[in-house]
Amino acid sequence: MKFGYKICSFTILWVFAFKTSFSQDIQHKVVVKNLENKQGVLYVGWYKDPDTFRKIDKAIYRERFEVNHQTEVTVSFTNIPERKYAIAVFLDENDNYKLDTNLLGIPTEKYGFSNNILSALRPATFKESVFDLTHQEMIIHIKLK
Asked: What is the mean pLDDT of residues 46-58?
């Protein structure tokens, strides 16, 4: 009985060690286009909850990327769990950590969302921007408005 238990334990440990030694990091890339050669800080936020969507400080994964006269930027995220997400992006041209708007509430800095939902009258909703992230490498293209 003890011998069988030892073999079973050894087999489980060996399988786990083999699996982890050959596992790879899964990278997902967010390609942000239409930067128009501007300068500033690009914020990319991943959200899993509609109540926190578009609030950069509430993003469950976020990246800050310096932009210096590029027209396109690729930001990589590694090993994000499989589930539904929505992504919001904005280019903070004056580094004040927020999307600036005019007196009417219309953004004066560039922004975008996953699924490229860009309405002239309102920001995209979580439901419109949500997508399924799988354990396969994905490239998400977002065009800024």
From this structure: 97
Side chain identity at residue 143, one-letter code? K
Average pLDDT for residues 94-105, to the nearest whole number?
Answer: 94
What are the φ/ψ torsions at residue 20 (nearest 5 degrees)?
-70, -30
Strands, E assignment, 6-138: 27-47, 61-78, 83-92, 111-113, 131-133
The helix/strand/coil state of 67 is strand
User: What is the β-pairing status of strands 139-143 and 27-47?
Assistant: parallel
Helix residue ranges per DSSP H, 33-144: 126-129
The whole-angstrom separation of Cα 123 and Cα 120 is 8
pTM of the prediction? 0.82
- Dist CA 113 CA 86 (whole Å): 8
Q: Which of 53, 123, 57, 47 is nearest to 85 (CA)?
A: 47
Q: Has residue 68 got a pLDDT over 50?
A: yes
Q: Enumerate the domain spans of the chain.
A: 27-143
Q: Tell me, what amino acid is at 18?
A: F
User: Strands, E, within 49-98: which ranges?
Assistant: 61-78, 83-92
